[in-house]
Amino acid sequence: REINILAISGSLRKQSTNTMLMHAMMALAPTTLKFQVYDQLNDLPHFNPDLDVDDSPVSVQYFRSQLKQADGVLICTPEYGNGIPGVLKNALDWIVSSGEWVNKPTVVIAASPSPFGGIQAHTSILLTLNMINALVLDDASHTIPHITMKINKQGTIIDPDTKKALQDSLFRLAEACPN
Ligand code: FNR
Q: pLDDT grade, residue 44 (50/70/90)?
């Protein structure tokens, strides 16, 4: 059976290392995993409960439906100002009331050029993912320091240990998804 994974990069940047990493991970994954990339974080309005009363905005409905269809989620995110990018937090806020993420196996990767590897972003997103009852796979989720030394400009993971760890994350994600 195919397992559907929604892949989300927290970076809006064209040359994003996290987006490259996400694509590299998709290529490393077991063949049972089928990926759908959600790349429309920028289309979501700022979270406002007033917009969510009768008909929610189409962009929000689309994000929720993509999540609902997914068996699991992969997130690769940068850290900005010791937290997660506002667009990613905003997307999570839209799910608090609607619940599409509940019990969904989720792998979170936070990659940064800094020696601290996006640890604050990682910690911060886990608080929100736990609040919306996502099933975060702790053993499969990682911070990646010095990312620019581990992935090249072509988007190939050039650090063998990183490649192995991420491949292992994807196997764990596949295992955690109900069949
Ligand atoms: C950053 N960056 C950064 N990195 C980090 O580890 N912790 C942080 O708090 C911040 N804060 C921050 C603020 C601003 C204004 C910028 C421009 C950058 C560096 C960030 O990790 C780096 O730009 C990454 O390359 C961003 O990820 P993507 O876009 O390559 O995926």
A: very high
On the CB side of 16, CA atoms within 13 Å amount to 21
Q: What are the chain's domains?
A: 3-176 (3.40.50.360)
- Helix, coil or strand: residue 162: helix
- DSSP-assigned letter for residue 146: S
Block residue for tokens 């994954």: 29
The model carries a pTM of 0.98
Is residue 31 exposed (0-12), middle (13-18) or buried (19+ Cβ within 10 Å)? exposed
Q: Write the pLDDT tens digit of every residue in 50-88.
A: 999 989 999 999 999 999 999 999 999 999 999 999 999
Q: Which residue's CA is the closest to the ligand 1 atom numbered 13?
A: 80
Q: Is the CB of 18 under 6 A from ligand 1?
A: yes
